C-alpha cells in the first residue's frame, strides 16, 4: 500500500488500533451470543436485553459532540486512554448485574467509554498522523477490524460455555486493562498532526464552504447504513435462526460474515486507489438491498442463506469503509474531527435503536419484517449516495471519475 511506503510509522499506529479496535468492538458484541442467557438470568425479554446495546449507542452519541472538543485539544491518544480505563469497570458492573437497572447502568458506562475509544477516536488518530493519506489508513484498519465478529463470536461462545457470561465479562475487562491500555500508553504516538509540508494543519481557505444541506446528506447516508449494518450484525444469529437454521449452523454462517467483510476491502483496491468513499459506497451499497430481497424470497433455503451472507458481507464490509471515508470527500484535516464528532450523534442513535427494533420485528413478524425495513433503508442509502456524488468538490470529482 502506497501510504505505508510513504510513512512506515503508520504501521505501528495501525497495529495498535487494529488490536484495540478488535477488542473494543468484539467485547461489546456479547449479547449477540449470550443474549438468551442474559434474558434468563436477569428475568428480561430478549428485546430488552438487546436494548442494553441501544443504551450504549445512545450514550456514545450524546457524548460524541462534547468529546470532539477534547479530541481537538488533547489529541486522540489521551482521550482513548481515559476511555479504556472507564470501559473496564463497565464490564465489571455488567458481570455483577442481577436486575435490569444495574444491567442498563453498565451499558451507560460502556457507552461513555465507547464514545472515546471506538471508531471515531481511531479515525481521528489516523487523521492526525496520516493527513491526506487518512482514507487509505482507515481502509487498512478496517481490513483487520472487520474480523471482530469472526474472532469474538466464537470466543464469547467458548468463554461463556466454560465461565458463564459473567466470567466472560471479567475476562474482557482484564483484556482492556492489560492489552488495550498499555498499547495506547506506550505504543500509540503522542499527538502529532501531519500535513504535506510538516507544518500545522491549515484549512483550504480557497475552498468553498460546504453547504449545511450536504452535511445533512452525509449524516443521513451514514446514519441509514449504520442502522442496517449495526442492527443486522447484532441480530444476525437470531435472524438466521428465524430462517430455520439450527443454532450451531446459524453461528457457523454468522461467523463467516467477518471474513467476507474483510475480503470485501478488495473492492476499494479494485479502483486502483482512485475511488473515494462515495464511489465505494455506491458500488457496495447496491449489494445490500439485493441480499435482503434474495433472503426474503428464498423461504430459508440453505443456498440462499449462503448467498445472502456473501452479498451482505461484501456490501456491508465495503460500506463500513465508505461510512468512515465519505466525510474526507468534503472536509479537510482541520474540519474532519469536528465533522466526525457531529456525525457520531445520529450514527450512534441509529445504532442504538436498530437492534431492539429489528428484534421486535423478528419477534412479531418473523424475518420478513426485519428484512423489509433494512431493504427500504438500503435503497434510500443508495439514492442519497447518488445525490452526494453530484455534490463532490470539483477537484475530487475529477479524480473520482
TrEMBL record:
Residues that span the membrane, as ranges: 12-34, 46-67, 79-97, 103-126, 138-159, 165-188, 209-232, 244-263, 275-297, 303-331, 343-363, 369-388
Positions of the Major facilitator superfamily (MFS) profile domain: 13-393
PROSITE patterns: MFS
Taxonomy, superkingdom: Bacteria
Keywords: Membrane, Transmembrane, Transmembrane helix
Protein name as annotated: MFS permease
GO molecular function: transmembrane transporter activity
Native organism: Bradyrhizobium vignae
Amino acid at each position: 500500500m502506497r501510504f505505508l511506503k510513504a510513512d512506515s510509522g503508520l504501521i505501528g499506529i495501525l497495529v495498535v488500533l487494529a488490536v484495540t479496535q478488535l477488542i473494543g468492538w468484539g467485547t461489546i458484541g456479547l449479547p449477540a451470543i449470550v443474549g438468551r442467557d442474559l434474558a434468563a438470568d436477569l428475568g428480561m425479554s430478549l428485546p430488552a436485553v438487546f436494548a442494553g446495546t441501544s443504551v450504549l449507542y445512545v450514550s456514545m452519541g450524546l457524548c460524541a459532540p462534547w468529546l470532539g472538543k477534547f479530541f481537538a485539544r488533547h489529541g486522540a491518544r489521551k482521550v482513548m486512554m481515559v476511555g479504556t480505563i472507564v470501559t473496564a469497570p463497565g464490564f465489571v458492573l455488567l458481570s455483577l448485574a442481577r436486575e435490569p437497572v444495574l444491567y442498563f447502568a453498565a451499558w451507560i458506562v460502556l457507552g461513555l467509554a465507547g464514545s472515546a475509544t471506538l471508531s471515531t477516536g481511531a479515525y481521528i488518530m489516523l487523521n492526525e498522523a496520516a493527513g491526506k493519506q487518512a482514507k487509505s489508513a482507515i481502509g487498512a484498519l478496517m481490513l483487520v477490524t472487520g474480523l471482530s465478529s469472526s474472532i469474538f463470536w466464537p470466543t464469547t461462545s467458548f468463554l461463556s460455555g466454560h465461565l458463564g457470561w459473567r466470567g466472560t465479562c471479567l475476562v474482557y475487562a482484564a483484556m482492556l486493562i492489560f492489552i488495550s491500555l498499555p498499547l495506547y500508553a506506550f505504543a500509540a504516538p503522542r499527538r502529532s498532526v501531519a500535513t504535506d509540508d510538516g507544518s500545522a494543519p491549515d484549512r483550504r481557505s480557497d475552498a468553498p464552504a460546504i453547504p449545511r444541506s450536504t452535511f445533512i446528506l452525509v449524516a443521513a447516508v451514514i446514519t441509514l447504513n449504520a442502522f442496517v449494518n449495526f442492527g443486522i450484525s447484532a441480530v444476525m444469529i437470531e435472524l438466521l435462526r428465524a430462517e430455520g437454521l439450527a443454532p450451531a449452523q446459524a453461528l457457523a454462517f454468522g461467523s463467516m460474515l467477518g471474513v467476507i467483510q474483510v475480503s470485501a476491502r478488495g473492492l476499494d483496491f479494485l479502483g486502483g486507489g482512485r475511488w473515494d468513499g462515495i464511489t465505494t459506497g455506491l458500488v457496495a451499497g447496491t449489494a445490500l438491498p439485493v441480499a435482503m430481497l434474495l433472503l426474503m424470497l428464498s423461504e430459508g433455503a440453505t443456498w440462499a442463506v449462503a448467498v445472502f451472507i456473501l452479498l451482505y458481507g461484501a456490501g456491508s464490509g465495503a460500506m463500513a469503509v465508505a461510512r468512515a471515508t465519505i466525510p474526507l470527500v468534503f472536509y479537510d484535516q482541520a474540519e474532519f474531527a469536528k465533522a466526525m464528532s457531529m456525525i457520531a450523534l445520529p450514527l450512534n442513535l441509529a445504532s442504538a435503536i436498530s437492534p431492539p427494533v429489528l428484534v421486535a420485528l423478528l419477534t412479531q413478524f418473523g424475518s420478513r419484517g426485519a428484512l423489509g425495513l433494512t431493504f427500504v433503508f438500503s435503497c434510500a442509502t443508495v439514492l442519497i449516495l447518488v445525490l452526494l456524488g453530484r455534490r463532490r468538490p470539483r477537484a475530487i470529482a475529477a479524480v473520482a471519475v
